[in-house]
Design goal:
The complex is a heterotrimer of chains A (422), B (390) and C (244).
Chain A lengths: L1 H10 L1 H41 L2 E5 H6 L9 E2 L1 H11 L4 E15 L5 E12 L7 H6 L1 H4 E4 L7 E5 H7 L6 E7 L5 E12 L4 H4 L2 E5 H7 L5 E2 L1 E5 L7 H12 L9 E5 L4 H39 L1 H9 L4 H36 L2 E2 L14 E2 L5 H6 L1 H16 L1 H4 L2 H9 L1
Parallel strand pairs in A: 4-9, 6-8
Antiparallel strand pairs in A: 1-11, 1-12, 2-10, 3-4, 3-7, 3-11, 5-8, 6-9, 7-8, 13-14
Chain B lengths: L2 H12 L1 H40 L2 E4 L20 H8 L3 E11 L6 E8 L20 E6 H7 L6 E7 L5 E12 L10 E5 H7 L8 E4 L13 E4 H4 L1 H39 L1 H9 L4 H37 L1 E2 L14 E2 L5 H20 L10 H5 L5
Chain C lengths: L3 H15 L3 H12 L3 E12 L2 E12 L3 E8 L7 E5 L2 E6 L4 E5 L15 H5 L4 H4 E11 L2 E10 L8 E7 L5 E7 L5 E13 L2 E11 L7 E10 L16
Antiparallel strand pairs in C: 1-2, 1-13, 2-3, 3-4, 4-5, 5-6, 7-8, 8-9, 9-10, 10-11, 11-12, 12-13
The chains are: A alpha+beta (422), B alpha+beta (390), C mainly beta (244).
Chain lengths: 422, 390, 244
């Protein structure tokens, strides 16, 4: 029976090709929308994770309570041991230390006295580790406005706006005046090798990006850091495993002010809210789309059956049972739905994958590329992408045919035959 | 009979099918408008929250004032220019005096900005009323984030320390009279609000201010002498740029929704053409030019769009209006990444947006209706009459 | 008339002998410590959250307006130098070979995380010129008989508007000091734990500074050696000496 049906489908292109194409189109659109919307959701996480919270974050309990991390008495100590422990217990995550600090950037004249000075906010990361999580998470090259990325010890980046205000050119030396972890005034010399744009005025006003290894001795933070961030290797945040890791780390751990505590990205109340919001919006969008697409394909299924009333009339006339005809219609719809869904999903996933890898650049719409505002929008292919197409593609098509197929039982055979005639 | 009336009659004649397609189209229309409303609402909400709590209609800054430079704050105070003083007097602007200080919650030293504002001001949506409290202790208003970070609640006392205009240290106990929940971080973190005259007295800065904030729909004066004017747009630049970066992503979603509706109407048109082969043949045999036949079917498709608009307006308008009134409840405050949203998101529907969507939909529908009619050009009337597709 | 004189003398004498003028005491305190030049070595112990730290330094002081300090320990801070000329404070950091002017806001920062600020360090010791003193009463402190002086700012712009000072009646050394905010709130205290005699002077050997509003054990300042009226080469009080 199936072979017969298949032959029928393949022979009569107007019976099969068009419905299948419709299903393919519908399913492709659905899959692309779904993946696109998921990508937008991930984008929120990506930017925040990269700059602020990581996927997982270890700070001292005191710092977590106060809501601020810096190079002060509440910094994480025993960094080496902590990193070893983290890497040993949770090897599926890439752990990297960071220091946040503030101070003055002071430019010397020929006598070593101040030529220009401005306040800066500082971030020290593992800047030079090749292919390290920081490089991948922050994607600094994109936001570079002049000069180059640091490659040797003592090299730093500053915000472009600051450099222009101080008339600082790449290659110049600058001194950071800051306070150490214990409150002493300290200075450290750096070479500014490039400038970047962050994308938020408060930060662009005055910011410096340095390597952890350079800042630690300057701020008397040997074997210490403000925080340790953890990233999943592919930069994709996974809520359940992250929560599990944080819980495992915190279970039974001491809770003194200086003891480490771990939080996952969702634990940050502000970010969790944004994620919830994004999830709500995306779910709504997807639901609307799937419902509407289902209706469309249901309609198409309906149509496909209606076209064949003539043929059906003949089959009834030659004695085929109502039920059998109905079942054969369903079977055909099933095949169309399946084939259409498979092809549509394949096409949709292919397009989404392309959009994931290459993305859509919105740089034209933003004044300049910056670190904190992504200028490339990407889709994200998730397991759901492979399944979402089936709802409109298979189920709706089937539903459409089942309902319109019922018409067989209602109309007179003669009328059906007449439709065949014209 | 005019083409239009014919098309209309055909549409009505198809009954359920028309209704179905109209429903589908109208759904996409409503979906697009709803989504655009959400995005615009988000944009406006963020900006609105900031305008209400901080930015106002624009600001006038003391020449030495730089919100990003904490070191210059000690000198950023002076008498506001006459034009500003007039505005303050008639309530269309509020003066704010900023004095850098420190405080000692739990015996730990933390920097703090003391911001003096008139308790009775109506320019900013800050709950400054309780600051009119009397008493020896200084009444202060703090934000929830600061309260949480320092373990403070209403009624708690904390020691404040600052330097007056001459540089002499002063320290006094202050009592928290109000903890405000505000989506705008920059009026919350590391700062405390005090009554303006009290602060002026304590800091020995009589009649002085650091900045003047104009009321929401008021523009700060141009003739401000050395004081610099900051427009609302300037102050909201970051927010707008962040939201703009999201808008393009949304546009892609709308395009996909549009494709969806195109698919719906395309399908319908093809079926329509197929089922009415005989009718087409008849019309052509009766002398109707092919072009007119094609126009008829195109018109029918376009009318679908019109009906979709009407239907969408009928059920969509009240639905979306309620949505705009009630808003969308978010589980927690979504404000920690530059987006000052607060608890509920209110969609905003602009006439321009709705009209453009409408127009776009109609155009798309018409065009997509037209596409399958090209087949008519190659249709043989004789074959059509017999019920066979050409 | 003659008969009254003894009576008047009897009356007036106790009044005069009761409490000397506060300003007089203050002047004597200044005289006790004042000298043309001083050279000293000192140790400062800072109690912080993570433990205590000790900083050693050597200072050359001329008059009240010029001083030069070199830090000797810990190794991290060794070689750091500070030069005060009038109301300017310059700091030299050997690690970066930079000379930084500490001005304005920076002066209010604490020195090495201690309870003292740079401003406190810079303070002109000639209290007599800055404050007007009145004697409140006699009071003992650490079993030493003292006068309790109340100091009020004579000139505007002083960090501390009022102070209270317990001055040893015999030695004219301040044994305890409270520094107050304009509101009268207590801000900082100094407590002299040890006094030593050097020549004809009494010197506070060990002093504990405390920022009262912060929790913590304060900062202890110990003078290990001090010499008065020594010859100090001119070049010491110049910016060039910072980089030597």
């Amino acid at each position: 029976m199936i072979r017969f049906l298949l032959k029928g489908l393949l022979r009569d292109r107007s019976r099969s090709l068009f419905p299948v194409l419709t299903v393919v189109a519908g399913v492709t659109l659905t899959v692309v929308l779904y993946s696109w919307v998921r990508g937008t959701e991930s984008d929120v996480i990506r930017a925040s994770a990269a700059f602020a919270t990581g996927h997982l974050r270890v700070t001292t309990t005191g710092a977590a309570r106060e809501g601020e991390v810096g190079a002060d008495e509440l910094a994480l100590t025993g960094l080496g041991g902590l990193l070893d422990e983290l890497r040993r217990r949770f090897p599926g995550v890439e752990w990297t230390p960071r220091i946040r600090f503030a101070g003055l950037l002071d430019l010397p004249d020929e006598r070593g006295e101040t030529r220009a000075q401005a306040p800066v906010a500082g971030l020290a990361i593992d800047l030079r580790a090749p292919g390290g999580p920081e490089q991948r998470a922050l994607n600094l090259g994109r936001a570079l406005r002049s000069g180059r990325l640091p490659a040797a010890p003592g090299e730093v980046l500053v915000s472009d706006e600051l450099a222009q205000r101080l008339r600082l050119a790449p290659g110049e030396r600058a001194t950071l005046i800051a306070t150490t972890r214990f409150g002493s005034l300290t200075t450290a010399n750096f070479t500014v090798v490039g400038t970047i744009r962050f994308g938020i005025s408060a930060v662009d006003r005055g910011a410096i990006l340095a390597d952890v290894a350079d800042v630690q001795p300057a701020l008397d933070m040997d074997d210490a850091a403000s925080e340790v961030l953890g990233f999943f290797p592919d930069q994709v945040f996974r809520a359940a495993p992250a929560r599990a890791i944080a819980d495992a780390f915190n279970a039974g751990a001491p809770v003194g002010d200086l003891d480490p505590v771990m939080a996952d990205l969702r634990a940050d109340p502000g970010l969790a809210a944004i994620l919830d919001f994004a999830a709500t919006v995306t779910t709504a969008l997807i639901a609307i789309f799937v419902v509407v697409m289902s209706i469309v394909l249901w309609n198409a299924g309906l149509m496909a059956s209606l076209r064949r009333y003539g043929e059906i009339g003949v089959r009834l006339a030659i004695g085929e049972h109502h039920g059998r005809i109905y079942r054969s219609l369903i079977a055909e719809a099933l095949m169309i739905g399946l084939v259409g869904s498979l092809l549509g999903t394949a096409l949709g996933v292919a397009i989404s994958a392309y959009l994931e890898v290459h993305g859509v650049s919105i740089a034209r719409f933003l004044k300049n590329a910056s670190l904190l505002i992504s200028d490339v929008l990407r889709a994200e292919v998730t397991p759901g992408s492979y399944l979402i197409g089936l709802v409109p593609g298979l189920l709706a098509t089937l539903a459409g045919t089942s309902i319109s197929g019922l018409g067989i039982f209602r109309r007179q055979t003669s009328q059906l035959a007449k439709e065949f005639e014209g | 009979m005019t083409l239009l009336r014919l098309a209309w009659r055909n549409l009505l004649g198809a009954g359920t099918r028309t209704a179905l397609n109209v429903l589908v189209l109208s759904l996409t229309f409503v979906a697009i408008v709803a989504s655009l409303g959400l995005l615009e609402g988000m944009n406006q909400q963020t900006a609105r929250a900031m305008v209400e709590a901080e930015v106002g209609g624009g600001q006038l800054w003391h020449p030495r004032y730089d919100p990003f430079d904490p070191l210059a704050l000690a000198e950023a105070h002076g008498a506001p220019p006459p034009a500003a003083r007039r505005m303050i007097a008639d309530g269309s602007a509020a003066a704010i005096l900023v004095v850098p200080g420190t405080f000692y919650p739990n015996g730990r030293l933390r920097p703090l900005l003391l911001k003096g504002i008139d308790p009775g001001q109506r320019v900013l949506a800050l709950p400054t009323g309780p600051l009119a409290a009397d008493g020896d202790e200084i009444p202060i208003l703090i934000g929830q984030r600061t309260a949480r970070a320092c373990g403070l609640a209403v009624g708690d006392t904390v020691t404040l320390q600052w330097r007056d205009a001459a540089g002499t240290i002063d320290a006094r106990d202050a009592r928290v009279v109000e903890v405000m929940r505000t989506p705008v971080q920059s009026v919350d973190l590391n700062q405390a609000w005090l009554p303006l005259e009290r602060l002026r007295g304590l800091a020995a800065m009589p009649g002085e201010a650091t900045l003047v904030v104009a009321a929401r729909d008021v523009v700060p004066p141009d003739d401000a002498g050395a004081w610099r004017s900051r427009s609302q747009d300037e102050l909201l630049a970051d927010v707008r740029s962040l939201v703009r970066s999201k808008a393009v992503g949304a546009a892609i979603v709308y395009v996909l929704l549009l494709f969806l509706s195109m698919l719906a109407i395309f399908d319908t048109q093809v079926l329509s053409l197929f089922r009415r082969r005989k009718e087409i043949g008849t019309l052509m045999a009766l002398g109707m030019p092919r072009g007119t036949v094609a126009a008829l079917f195109t018109l029918e498709g376009a009318l679908h769009g019109v009906l979709a608009v009407v239907a969408g307006a009928l059920y969509g308008a009240p639905l979306l209006a309620r949505f705009a009134r009630v808003g969308w409840k978010l589980s927690v405050k979504a404000d920690s990444y530059g987006f000052a949203l607060g608890d509920t998101l209110y969609p905003v529907y602009s006439l321009r947006v709705v009209a453009l969507t409408l127009l776009g939909l109609l155009l798309v529908t018409t065009f997509v209706s037209f596409l399958p009619t090209r087949r008519i050009a190659s249709l043989q009337p004789t074959e059509a009459l017999r019920g066979r597709a050409g | 008339m003659r008969a009254f004189l003894p009576a008047i003398a009897l009356f007036a004498a106790p009044l005069a002998a009761q409490l000397p003028a506060g300003d007089e005491i203050l002047r004597k305190v200044d005289d006790n410590l004042g000298s043309a030049t001083k050279r000293s070595t000192a140790r400062m112990t800072i109690a912080g959250r993570g433990g205590t730290r000790t900083v050693e330094s050597r200072s050359w002081i001329r008059g009240t307006a010029e001083s030069f300090t070199e830090y000797l320990a810990p190794p991290r801070d060794a070689g750091t130098k500070m030069l005060k000329l009038g109301d300017q404070l310059w700091t030299y950091f050997p690690a970066t070979d930079r000379t930084i002017l500490i001005a304005g806001h920076m002066l209010r920062q604490s020195v090495m995380g201690s309870d003292l600020s740079y401003e406190d360090l810079m303070e002109d010791p000639k209290l007599f010129e800055l404050y007007r003193a009145t004697v409140l009463r006699e009071e003992a402190w650490r079993e030493r008989p003292c006068w309790l002086l109340r100091l009020e700012a004579r000139v505007p712009g002083l960090a501390y508007e009022t102070r209270e000072m317990w001055v040893d009646r015999e030695r004219y050394v301040p044994l305890k000091e409270n520094r107050y905010a304009k509101s009268g709130k207590l801000l900082k205290t100094t407590d002299v734990v040890e006094v030593a005699r050097l020549g004809n002077r009494w010197v506070a050997r060990k002093i504990v500074f405390r920022d009262v509003l912060k929790t913590g054990d304060g900062t202890t300042f110990e003078i290990e050696s001090i010499e008065f009226d020594v010859v100090i080469p001119e070049h010491v009080f110049s910016k060039a000496s910072l980089r030597r």
